Please model this.
Amino acid sequence: MRRVLVLALLALALPMAAWADGIDLVNQFGSISVSASGITSVGSQLKQFNAVTATPGHSLGSVSFSTGALISGSIMSGGTFSDVGSSFVIIGRGNQTPHKGTIFSGAFVGPITWTLVSQSGQSLTFQLSGTIQGTLWNGHFVSGTTTQTIYSVPGQIAQGIGHIRVGNTSILTPEPGTLGLLGTGLVAIAGMLRRKFAAGA
Model:
């Protein structure tokens, strides 16, 4: 009975141990080129990494991304882009980020949504959003989401030109302490099952 109770407690604890912490990023400025072949960003600045914010006129690094081809809808009214051949890369600069160099290197996973969210006079606002997966500087494989708010005007967007107003990216990261708990729980369950099978043999 005692073993069954311990197993039940471990089973309840394991799902909570999978993900605990995260990285929240904000990028601003830069531009995009958009066509039926895909969307590519240029020159967007990393302005915030969790609680660390870049001083005015400076950045913590850069954020760049690209999508696959347009698979439904249209550029002017919104649609869906493919993740095939996509990328999402975050580069850190200086001592304010946890790593100088590539912080995250990955790509979009699944369809990428391109939505016309508002049209006021000659001003158009779009949102590009999707799920990303890749590797952190420390070798951990992680996933997250990004939403990039982009503005343009009809003449520019018809030529494939847009400007990044702000981007928000959240990446889930494994917390070493909870991953240790997960590993310990799995070892304990395996040991108990082994003893049970050995006793029954």
Remarks:
- The two ends are 20 Å apart (CA to CA).
- The chain has one domain: 19-175.
- The first strand starts at residue 21 and ends at 28.
